[in-house]
Amino acid sequence: MDVGLAARADRLEALLPQTQCTKCGFQGCRPYAEAMARGEADCNRCPPGGAEGIRRLAAELGVAPLPLDPSHGTEQPRAVARIDETLCIGCTLCIQACPVDAIVGAAKQMHTVLPDWCTGCDLCVAPCPVDCIAMIPVTGERTGWDAWSQPQADAARARYLSRKQRLVREREENEARLAAKAAAKLEALRQEAASSEAERQAQERKKAIIQAAIERARQKRQAAQPLNAAPADPVDRPEPAPAAGPEPSDHSGDSGHSDHPVPSDTKRPQ
Q1: Positive or negative CA dihedral for 34, 39, 45, 46?
Q2: Of all residues in the chain, what percent carry a pLDDT higher than 90?
Q3: Could you give the C-alpha distances from 36 to 21, 31, 184, 228, in angstroms and in order?
Q4: Strand 103-104 and strand 79-83: pairing?
Q5: Of 45-49, 103-107, 146-150, which gets the smallest average pLDDT?
Q6: Residue 100 has what pLDDT?
Q7: Cα 161 to Cα 61: distance, rounded to the nearest angstrom
Q8: So where does this one cross the membrane (predicted)?
Q9: 61-64: long-range contacts (C-beta < 8 A, 24 or more apart)?
């Protein structure tokens, strides 16, 4: 994206409510803003922004406002997620789905929503395997930007970006751990003396497998280096993530960890 389009995308992004709900068909507010800047998406695909949001975007784009596209949702009062703590099994799937780290919890511990941080995106509802999350309206009859303020949008965007940075950091740390394990295993095989030709051949096969894995990881890191921004192509709303295991693993991505402290009385019965 050239400088002019990037600057316009910046202005359009600043006009979005930063709920990161993906109802527009993009993976967040920034990709939607970039698509509008390129002329690839209309300004009427953001239900959280509502009619007022459409007017703001249309003014920036220099086009006439359009009615909200009903295929992307309807303008409604803002809602906040609420977890039924009597049903929560501590699976962490809602934590992984929340784009702004508004859910506190850990594996096999009760989860709790921070209502002041929740953007009402409802991305946590579908992944819940026990249907213990409900969206509770909290703004009365107020909808769109009447139910959401610019400071709230700015804070939500900051938390969203912080989460993205944390996930990148955790993935890099995980990959570094795996690389160190592989290198240590390879060195151990090199130091190990074979007592027979068959054992030597087995060691060589193991070394080749480990070296190939190390090279694949290196190529993966190299290929991912320029991909710092979220994709700007339209996508479906994300599917629920795989269930998180009870123990930490070496798998990269959002492990269900939250940067918020978990109250000591939220442990689930064994």
Answers
A1: positive
A2: 57
A3: 17, 9, 49, 20
A4: unpaired
A5: 103-107
A6: 97
A7: 25
A8: none
A9: 61/12, 61/36
193 CB-contact burial (10 Å; exposed 0-12 / middle 13-18 / buried 19+)? exposed
CATH 1.10.15 is the classification of domain 3-72: yes
How many residues in total does the chain contain? 270
Q: Label residue 234 exposed, middle or buried (CB < 10 Å: 0-12, 13-18, 19+).
A: middle
Q: Are 257 and 43 in contact (CB under 8 A)?
A: no
* Contact in structure between 229 and 32 (CB atoms under 8 Å): no
Q: Which amino acid is at 67?
A: P
Write the CA distances from 31 to 53, 56, 129, 163, 235, integer angstroms: 17, 18, 29, 17, 10
**In the numeric block, which tokens belong to residue 51?**
């009619």
| Token output for 53 | 């949001």
